[in-house]
Specification:
The complex is a heterodimer of chains A (76) and B (257).
Chain A lengths: L2 E5 L9 H5 L5 E3 L11 E3 L10 H5 L5 E5 L1 H6 L1
Chain B lengths: L28 H16 L6 E5 L2 H4 L1 H4 L3 E4 L5 H11 L4 E6 L1 H4 L4 H10 L3 E7 L31 H7 L4 E5 L4 H12 L5 E6 L3 H4 L8 H10 L1 E3 L16 E8 L2
Parallel strand pairs in B: 1-2, 1-3, 3-4, 4-6, 5-6, 7-8
Antiparallel strand pairs in B: 5-8
The chains are: A alpha+beta (76), B alpha/beta (257).
């Protein structure tokens, strides 16, 4: 595991841009509903994430970002 | 399954995002433009007090409320005039204008031309959403050629890069929200220009185009931007009309010292 995906559920508006833009198909639509009635994304397959940051760059609501894990930082 | 437990974003120091999420529709291009602008400011390591943000009316006018810079929201048609005034008062800071179709094309066009001729050091990020969002189905200055409104009236559309170039802008570019990576470097380039610079972002209104079933979901929107745009740098600005069966030409068109 190299990268970690962080998602703020309450800020998401369910536009699914992050799910469509991700080339490694890390994310999927979750079944839970936030307080505005939208389905936020959830991490399905973290092993495939390469920390390209596309979901972070395109999110219109500042609800998702990616970081490198501490173990991976030591190995670099 | 991983649980989502986060509460705050690393970019929250630039935003008034704590009480509510942003006010725009899900997936609107304005959000992506703001995201790229914030990433630019993070990349350049600029202090919060060195940037002034001016915005006008409509959906794009809400940008000033959302950002934590020195921000001003002004009346219909006075955006460029006000930004020039702000620049003359704060000569050290960079003035960024987020403008709309209603802000300088209908009323206040003479201020745009005058500011361009005087070469005032401001950056205009024009978000062109093709229609008036609130009073939809009316022909407006940027409705594509041969696309009539519901009253069957149409007019020749404004070509904003050509207008900006003929006013003497030092940097003119045009992008879509799908080209966010290009847009970041374009804003960085325009930040260091000491003169009038214009970046047009074409992001059609979702409420209007959702009825055509082309842009109803994220996949359709990404496909629309991808198939209907072609990158041609240094293209002559006379050819940049948006016509109904042509592709939208995007890229960097003018870059003067």
């Amino acid at each position: 595991m190299k990268a970690e995906v962080h998602i703020i559920n309450e800020r998401c508006k369910g536009c699914n841009i992050c799910i469509e833009i991700c080339q490694a198909s890390v994310l999927e639509i979750s079944e839970e509903i936030n307080s505005n009635g939208y389905h936020p994304p959830v991490v399905k397959n973290i092993e495939a994430c390469i920390n390209c940051g596309m979901c972070e760059m395109f999110c219109p609501d500042f609800a998702i970002w990616v970081t490198v894990t501490k173990e991976a930082e030591v190995n670099i | 399954m991983v649980k989502n437990i986060e509460k705050s974003h690393p970019a929250d120091c630039f935003l008034h995002a704590d009480p509510v999420s942003s006010v725009w529709c899900p997936g609107c291009g304005i959000g992506t433009v703001i995201n790229t602008f914030i990433q630019t400011v993070e990349k350049l390591n600029i202090d919060l007090n060195e940037i002034c943000v001016v915005s006008g009316i409509g959906c794009t006018g809400k940008v000033a409320e959302y950002l934590k810079f020195k921000s001003f929201q002004v009346n219909d048609g006075e955006v460029i005039k006000y930004a020039a005034k702000v620049k003359s008062e704060n000569s050290d800071s960079k003035v960024v204008v987020f403008s709309n179709n209603a802000d300088f094309l209908v009323s206040g066009a003479e201020d745009f031309i005058e500011t361009g001729k005087n070469d005032v050091n401001i950056l205009v990020i024009h978000i062109n959403n093709i229609i008036y969002t609130i009073t939809e189905y009316r022909a407006i200055p940027t409705t594509p050629f041969m696309r009539a409104s519901i009253d069957k009236d149409f007019e020749l559309p404004f070509n904003i890069p050509h207008l900006a170039k003929s006013c003497g802008a030092r940097y003119v570019a045009r992008w879509t929200p799908l080209h966010a990576g290009w847009l970041i470097y374009s804003i960085i380039d325009a930040f260091y220009k000491k003169g009038f610079s214009v970046i047009e972002v074409i992001s059609p209104c979702l409420m209007y185009y959702a009825s055509n079933d082309r842009m109803a979901d994220a996949a359709g929107r990404i496909k629309f931007y991808d198939t209907n745009s072609v990158i041609k740098h240094d293209e002559s600005t006379e050819n940049l009309d948006i016509r109904i069966n042509n592709k939208i030409i995007i890229g960097k068109f003018v870059d003067k010292k």
